[in-house]
Design a protein that fits this description.
With 368 residues, this protein is mainly beta. The longest helix has 16 residues. Helix 1 runs antiparallel to helix 3 and helix 3 packs across helix 4. The protein has four helices and 23 strands. The strands form six sheets. Strands 1-2-3-15-14-4 form a six-stranded antiparallel barrel. A five-stranded mixed β-sheet has the order 7-16-13-9-11, with no helix packed on it. The chain is 12% helix and 43% strand.
Length: 368
């Protein structure tokens, strides 16, 4: 079928954006969680993360009953890949983030709005976290400090729906395919950065692929809305290539961050200028099936969805978890793989002539 080397084992495992390591709880007070097992006293406030490549993020927790794993590595994620995707109150959490500490750092003004006085940074962080938990986990929770509790009540009472923020940087789609001698793509850039740097494929494995615009002009930089193509030489052997785009920007408030180590899901409250990146792959073949495979978590359905696109002139048949699937020539299929909560997955899609694409991760969708 000619699909053998048209796709590499390496597949983008993330949606793009910021990746960071959690440093711990930095500005916090105390709260009391009331549940069937009795009252539990917990720390409540702002975490900090160190961004890979430079930058700092401030986050709150949206996953009260899950512990934070020490030095856990996090990836910017769409709400659909977290418990927020099925939470009708997720938009209210974003409103709280945009209208409280640290986005509002005038603590005197914030205290006046809340009908209190003398808010410290610790009070503001604790009150904000408590209000978030009331919507993220629908928990019965109160701040220990009276000023922080008044802030939490004000934020809970005032919260309004807000739309999910866009990614700091992503490429759509993350996998494309086509024939040699043509432009393969497009891959569209979505970002809030002023500009992004395009890093082309490197090495012999790239098969001479170049990164260009629609007119075939080499592309070294792009911006939001730019369409990027892989220019594949006519005489290129069947193969694949990967490009990376990088930028420096602030991550939008309200973006979720998750970890495959099952560490507590976080939501972004503040960002310095930070390094962000995204990748996309292209596969090509002279004849037969020419697949492009990508994957994304869907917490509302409890699945990992495999998107299979076949740009070739023959059907693409592959095996996934002992089941055979066929994508006709020129067609697209989405296959949902149901998983249990907290179930780690590691599956490889195999097809004719050695085609292989591996996906790994953990389905961490619920707050309990």
């Amino acid at each position: 079928s000619g699909a053998g080397t048209a796709a590499a084992d390496v597949a983008p495992q993330t949606e793009g954006g910021a990746t960071a390591t959690i440093d711990g709880l930095k500005t916090f007070g105390e709260a009391v969680v009331h549940d069937a097992g009795g009252d539990q006293r917990v720390s409540a406030g702002l975490f900090e993360m160190s961004v890979d490549g430079g930058g700092t993020l401030q986050t709150y927790c949206v996953d009260l009953h899950n512990p934070v794993q020490r030095d856990a590595h996090y990836q910017e994620t769409s709400w659909s890949g977290t418990s927020l995707g099925a939470n009708r109150d997720a938009g209210k959490i974003r409103w709280i983030l945009r209208n409280s500490y640290p986005q509002v750092n005038d603590l005197a003004a914030l205290a006046r709005r809340a009908g209190t006085h003398g808010l410290t940074e610790q009070d503001a962080a604790a009150g904000t976290q408590v209000a978030i938990w009331r919507y993220s986990d629908h928990a019965k929770v109160d701040a220990v400090d009276p000023q922080a509790e008044k802030l939490a009540d004000y934020l809970e009472r005032s919260a309004r729906d807000s739309a999910e923020p866009p990614a700091s940087l992503s490429l759509d789609p993350s996998a494309v395919s086509g024939r040699p001698g043509a432009l393969v793509g497009p891959v569209t850039v979505h970002t809030n950065a002023n500009a992004v740097t395009v890093i082309p494929p490197a090495g012999v494995a790239a098969g001479g692929a170049r990164i260009t615009d629609k007119a075939g002009k080499p592309l070294a930089a792009a911006k939001n809305g730019s369409r990027i193509y892989f220019h594949i030489p006519q005489d290129a052997a069947d193969g694949s290539a990967q490009l990376t785009v990088q930028a420096s920007t602030t991550v939008p408030v309200g973006r979720a961050l998750t970890s495959d180590s099952r560490s507590q899901t976080q939501i972004l409250a503040g960002s310095s200028e930070s390094a962000v990146s995204a990748t996309a792959t292209a596969g090509w073949a002279a004849r037969g099936a020419i697949p492009a495979i990508s994957a994304r978590k869907d917490c509302a359905k409890g699945t990992v969805d495999i998107l299979a696109v076949n740009k070739g002139d023959q059907p693409f048949t592959f095996r996934l978890m002992d089941t055979e699937h066929t994508v006709p020539a020129g067609a697209t299929r989405t296959i949902g793989v149901p998983l249990q909560e907290d179930q780690g997955y590691d599956f490889t899609i195999t097809g004719p002539d050695g085609f292989s694409r591996r996906f790994t991760g953990v389905l961490d969708c619920k707050i309990q």
